[in-house]
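ARCHIVE CARD
Drawer: 12
Card no.: 0347
Subject: one protein chain, sequence and derived structure
Cross-reference: see card 0346
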Amino acid sequence: MEQKEKRVAIIGGGITGLAAAHKLEKAKEAGELISYDLFEKDESLGGKIKTKRENGFLIELGPDSYLARKESMTTLAKQVGIDDILFNNTGQSYVLKGNSLLPIPGGAIMGVPTELQPFITTRLLSPIGKLRAAADFVYPRFTSKDEDISLGHFFRRRLGNEVVDRMIEPLLSGIYAGNLDKLSLKATFPEFQKIERRYGSLIRGIKSSRPKKKTNQTVDGQTRGMFATFRGGLGSLVEAIEEQLDPNAIHKNSKLISIDKEKSTFQLHFSDGEVRGYDSVIVTTPPNVTSQLLHTYPYFDYLQEMESTTVATVAMALKKENIIERHEGTGFVVPKNSNYTITACTWTHKKWEHSTPSGYALLRAYVGRAGDSAIVSRSDEEIVSAVMHDLKQLMSIKGKPEFFYIQRWQKSMPQYNVGHTYRLAKIKEDIARNLPGLYLAGAGYGGIGLPDCIDQGEKAVEQIVNS
């Protein structure tokens, strides 16, 4: 019996969709009887990856790096010919307390203290706050294996409010831009729950399970940081992947209206009236968009209900002579109970030296957080004014930026609130039973980091090829 070609549609040209398209292209080259089309509503690919190159500056308006220990992004980069991979310069990071930047204690993992001396001497916590955190050593286990509670509830029970509000919350909010008292422990950091179950104490468990320090060195002899990027910026990966794809399979400025399944074929309806049929569809759009595309089915209500946070990235270039930094490090985070508008700031010219020409400083500030994103809707001038006002409280800055870029990300940070994993499991069951051949992948589902998204896109392709 003659084998039929599998027709696959990819919806969304962010890193998840690009990873899926690249894997399908490689499957074709390996002899698989398969074809694909990638549809992107915008005029360019990359999704949240947006790299600006101007007058020697390399400016990331979305993510500026990825977690190096998650190797799928490095692997994909090498597959498309990128081998100039850079690791961030290591340096002290700070937390804002009042109007002062205080160093994050050495040995803190996601804000959880693991080394005695830095914890005892830090000015971030009061003596009572330190005593309360130390109670973690004797506090009994309180979560069961399959229980899902909020990160805030978990950490407050184990370490107390001060550690949570002054260390853990600002650090984790930098990742999820979410409300710690709503975010799911099971969906975000299930390893902490496992550590509590195994060791009883979170501090003891993290300290015991940490790998022994390695003297990882880059080729220039510098200590290798946790995060990686590419000399040409993250956008260079998008460009390199696109170059390896079939140009006839890439459809930009293609707005999809709905997805329906008729018998064994998925019908894709576009805004221009065109209808295309496919055997499988990989949907990588944000959850609320995905629910709209599949609105004729009752299985995707949770995707519409999922909260998402609106944020903005503010990149500003200044002459170095106009800025005096009193702190040596790579940046700082801001607790939500502060009187500041910004949520964090990276001294990009220190974290990524290749990003900034000599004689200049490059700052990346962030505004908008869960439940408080009104600043993002203000004018560019108002946002820059608010950011500069905050920064001038913490460092000496003269004049205005030489130039700036603001990137608004509307409802761009999906929130994995309590119950997320269980509700996703139900959706997967409904899809397997009623819509086989449909795959959901991307930041709204199995991890928001770039490598997590790549993993999801590639896994969907593996399931299609092996089906």
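Annotation on reverse: The chain has 16 helices and 22 strands. The two ends are 17 Å apart (CA to CA).
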